[in-house]
Write a structure and sequence with these properties.
Elements (H helix, E strand, L loop, with lengths): L31 H5 L5 H14 L4 H13 L1 E4 L7 H12 L4 H6 L11 E5 L3 H7 L7 E5 L9 H13 L4 E5 L2 H5 L3 H15 L3 E5 L8 H13 L4 E3 L11 H18 L4 E3 L7 H15 L11 E3 L2 H14 L12
Parallel strand pairs: 1-2, 1-8, 2-3, 3-4, 4-5, 5-6, 6-7
């Protein structure tokens, strides 16, 4: 049975009126008192996220609408060692047309220009992606600052950001120095992210925390707040290369940090879970968590993104099942 509170239809952002202008987070001075006051009740966090799938469900046309929204909030990503120009070009073609035309026609979305939130690539392929997406408003996001470890010399990391922006990247996914967090050196983390934000200029900065390597939920919360104080436009869970990536518990404490920051400053910061989110069911769980914790405003691509590679294929299969009542083979929905 569909929860009455979930009955409102969530249609893709490209079918909605343009969202109100969201003023970019300018950052603020580092507040160590705020950081050191952070406390996290791990057992309460785990109970909260454990109850979520059982309390909230969406079915039939409502589920299809939520899955279309998930696509519009997707950073379609390729970050493999064997990436080529052809791989990136095919990914960009998929970003332009993420769902087969016959499926969109069947669900009444053929004329609404469904597309993904961004295409995410290594710096080497930024210019390739920019050219392949010319004529669309899909931004190119570049992973930077010595991704995924973030241990390159500081000057090289800054120059890498500047080079990606010069090549046409409109979003930069940077990785923080995890050693700053593990050593409790919040000033160093703040200064690092602030310098990266300055190097980004008009390009939006997503700060990757690599939460699986931060040790505790308290560290995750503190790092989230410091990055926002330094001017992050998004905070992101993972590189996708760690042994533990996006989890519901980590996401919850990051969302609570975003809410706390908004309450205190009035600035909205986006959230990007990445790594390990591969199924339509998982995507729905994250959308529901976003809606419950931050509300409908955060269910749009300017404030929410999935870091995804294989997720799109499963969503497309679920949409075809909604239309035909049958699951199709994966090859009918090629990613790229």
């Amino acid at each position: 049975m569909i929860d009455e509170r979930q009955r409102e239809r969530v249609v893709p952002a490209h079918h909605e009126p343009a969202p109100p202008h969201v003023e970019r987070n300018p950052g603020r001075d580092l507040d160590l008192g705020w950081i050191e006051s952070v406390r996290v009740n791990r057992s309460a966090v785990e109970r909260r996220v454990a109850t979520l799938p059982g309390r909230r469900t969406v079915k039939q046309e409502w589920q299809a609408a939520w899955l279309l929204r998930a696509i519009s909030c997707m950073d379609l990503t390729t970050l493999a060692g064997d990436d080529t120009v052809g791989t990136v070009q095919r990914l960009c073609a998929k970003a332009r047309h993420p769902v087969r035309a016959d499926i969109l026609e069947a669900v009444g979305m053929a004329q609404h220009g469904l597309q993904v939130g961004a295409v995410c690539v290594y710096h080497t392929f930024v210019s390739t992606a920019v050219e392949a997406l010319r004529g669309t408003d899909i931004p190119v996001a570049a992973v930077s600052t010595g991704f995924p470890a973030g241990l390159n010399p500081f000057e090289l990391r800054v120059r890498e950001i500047e080079a990606s922006v010069a090549a046409g990247a409109r979003e930069i996914d940077i990785v923080i120095g995890r050693h700053h967090v593990l050593g409790g050196d919040w000033q160093a983390l703040y200064d690092e992210v602030k310098a990266f934000r300055q190097a980004c200029g008009e390009a939006h900065i997503k700060t990757i925390l690599a939460t699986g390597e931060l040790g505790t939920l308290r560290n995750v919360t503190k790092a989230s707040l410091v990055c926002m104080m330094a001017g992050a436009d998004f905070i992101k869970t993972s590189t996708g290369k760690e042994s533990v990536n996006a989890t519901a518990a980590v996401s919850l404490v990051m969302l609570r940090a975003i809410r706390d920051y908004y309450v205190r400053t009035g600035y909205r910061v986006g959230f990007k879970p990445a790594g390990g989110i591969k199924t339509a069911k998982q995507a729905l769980e994250w959308l529901i968590l976003m809606k419950e914790e931050l509300g409908d405003e955060w269910l749009r691509p300017h404030l929410f993104r999935f870091g995804a590679s294989s997720l799109l294929g499963d969503i497309e299969r679920q949409l075809e099942h909604h239309v035909t009542g049958q699951y199709s083979a994966a090859f009918r929905h090629p990613l790229a």
